[in-house]
Amino acid sequence: MKHLHMLMAALTIVLFLYQSYLVLSADRRAPRVVKIATHIIYAVLILSGAVMLMQLMSANAPLQWVFAKIILLVAAISSSIKAFNAHATPAQRKTGILIATVAYLGIVILAFAKPANLF
Fold this sequence. Notes:
Layout: H1 2-26, H2 32-58, H3 64-83, H4 90-113
C-alpha cells in the first residue's frame, strides 16, 4: 500500500507541475484527460492514505504529522482548483500555484521527516 501511495503522490506532483506549466507559460488549460486523471489519482491517493492511517492508528503510532499532511493536502487541492479555473485572473492563478507549491513542499518534507512531536 505504501508503494501505491508514493506512486500516486509522485503522479500528483507531476500532473500539478504540468498543469502549472500550461497555465503560466501558454495560458492554456490542461486537456480533459489530464483533469480526469488528476481526479482519479487524488481519489486513489486519499484512499491509500486512509488505509495506511488505519494501520498506523492500530499500532498506536504518533499521528500529528499525518494530520498536518491532510491539512496541507486540502490547502493544495483548494488552491489548485482556483489556479486552474478557466475564469481565474492571472494574479489568482499565480497565487494559487504558489500556495499549492508551498503546500506540496510541506507534504513532502513531512513525509520524509515524520516528526514525532509536531504540535
